[in-house]
Protein backbone atom coordinates (compact mmCIF):
# COMPACT_ATOMS: atom_id res chain seq x y z
CA UNK A 1 0.00 0.00 0.00
CA UNK A 2 1.54 3.24 -1.09
CA UNK A 3 0.63 6.77 -0.17
CA UNK A 4 1.71 8.65 -3.26
CA UNK A 5 0.92 8.10 -6.92
CA UNK A 6 3.51 6.85 -9.38
CA UNK A 7 3.55 10.31 -10.91
CA UNK A 8 6.21 12.53 -9.40
CA UNK A 9 4.75 15.54 -7.66
CA UNK A 10 6.50 18.50 -6.10
CA UNK A 11 6.07 18.73 -2.36
CA UNK A 12 5.36 22.35 -1.56
CA UNK A 13 7.51 23.79 1.17
CA UNK A 14 9.80 20.77 1.39
CA UNK A 15 13.50 21.37 1.85
CA UNK A 16 16.15 18.92 0.70
CA UNK A 17 18.03 17.48 3.70
CA UNK A 18 21.20 17.24 1.64
CA UNK A 19 21.49 20.44 -0.41
CA UNK A 20 18.77 22.41 1.42
CA UNK A 21 17.13 23.51 -1.82
CA UNK A 22 13.56 24.70 -1.31
CA UNK A 23 10.69 23.31 -3.39
CA UNK A 24 12.99 20.83 -5.14
CA UNK A 25 11.56 17.70 -3.51
CA UNK A 26 9.27 15.42 -5.53
CA UNK A 27 7.36 12.52 -4.00
CA UNK A 28 6.23 9.40 -5.81
CA UNK A 29 5.44 5.74 -5.35
CA UNK A 30 7.23 2.81 -6.93
CA UNK A 31 6.67 -0.91 -6.26
CA UNK A 32 4.23 -0.08 -3.43
CA UNK A 33 6.84 2.03 -1.69
CA UNK A 34 7.04 5.77 -1.29
CA UNK A 35 10.07 7.84 -2.14
CA UNK A 36 11.09 11.46 -2.00
CA UNK A 37 13.68 12.77 -4.39
CA UNK A 38 15.52 16.05 -4.81
CA UNK A 39 15.56 17.19 -8.43
CA UNK A 40 18.43 19.49 -7.60
CA UNK A 41 21.11 17.16 -6.22
CA UNK A 42 19.62 13.70 -6.87
CA UNK A 43 18.99 12.86 -3.21
CA UNK A 44 16.57 9.91 -2.88
CA UNK A 45 15.02 8.69 0.35
CA UNK A 46 12.49 5.93 0.93
CA UNK A 47 9.66 7.07 3.14
CA UNK A 48 8.22 4.74 5.78
CA UNK A 49 4.71 5.05 7.09
CA UNK A 50 3.39 3.03 9.98
CA UNK A 51 0.66 0.57 8.86
CA UNK A 52 -1.89 1.80 11.39
CA UNK A 53 -1.21 5.39 10.37
CA UNK A 54 -2.41 4.62 6.84
CA UNK A 55 -5.73 3.37 8.16
CA UNK A 56 -6.25 6.49 10.23
CA UNK A 57 -5.22 9.07 7.68
CA UNK A 58 -4.43 8.16 4.09
CA UNK A 59 -4.61 11.74 2.86
CA UNK A 60 -1.34 13.02 4.23
CA UNK A 61 -1.19 16.26 2.31
CA UNK A 62 -4.84 17.22 1.97
CA UNK A 63 -6.58 16.37 5.23
CA UNK A 64 -7.16 19.89 6.42
CA UNK A 65 -10.91 19.74 5.89
CA UNK A 66 -11.96 16.68 7.90
CA UNK A 67 -9.94 16.79 11.09
CA UNK A 68 -13.04 16.37 13.24
CA UNK A 69 -13.73 12.84 11.99
CA UNK A 70 -10.09 11.91 12.31
CA UNK A 71 -9.91 12.76 15.99
CA UNK A 72 -12.86 10.51 16.85
CA UNK A 73 -11.35 7.57 14.96
CA UNK A 74 -8.00 7.98 16.68
CA UNK A 75 -9.52 7.88 20.15
CA UNK A 76 -11.62 4.79 19.45
CA UNK A 77 -9.11 2.67 17.58
CA UNK A 78 -5.78 3.61 19.08
CA UNK A 79 -4.10 0.37 20.17
CA UNK A 80 -3.08 0.34 23.81
CA UNK A 81 0.55 -0.26 24.57
CA UNK A 82 1.96 1.09 21.32
CA UNK A 83 2.75 4.66 20.58
CA UNK A 84 2.08 5.04 16.87
ZN1 LIG B 1 19.00 18.33 -2.90
Detailed description of the structure:
The protein has 84 residues and is of the alpha+beta class. 20% of the residues lie in helices and 21% in strands. It has a 4-stranded antiparallel sheet with strand order 1-2-3-4, with no helix packed on it. It folds into 2 domains: 48 residues, no CATH class; 30 residues, no CATH class. The two termini are 18 Å apart. The mean pLDDT is 77. Bound molecules: zinc ion. The site of zinc ion has 9 residues, from loops.
Short description:
The protein is an alpha+beta fold.
Mean pLDDT comes to: 77
Overall SS class? alpha+beta
The count of strands amounts to 4
- β-sheet strand percentage: 15-25%
Radius of gyration based on Cα positions: 15 Å
Q: Compute the number of helices.
A: 2
The figure for the number of domains is 2
- Poorly predicted tracts of residues: none
What general outline do the C-alpha atoms trace? globular
Element-level helix/strand string = EEEEHH
> Could you tell me which ligands this complex binds, including any ions or cofactors?
zinc ion
Biggest pleated sheet: 4 strands, antiparallel
The strand order across the widest sheet is 1-2-3-4
Instruction: Report helical residue fraction.
Output: 10-25%
What characteristics describe this protein?
84 residues, single chain, 21% strand, 4 strands, binds zinc ion, alpha+beta, 2 domains, 2 helices, globular, 4-stranded antiparallel sheet
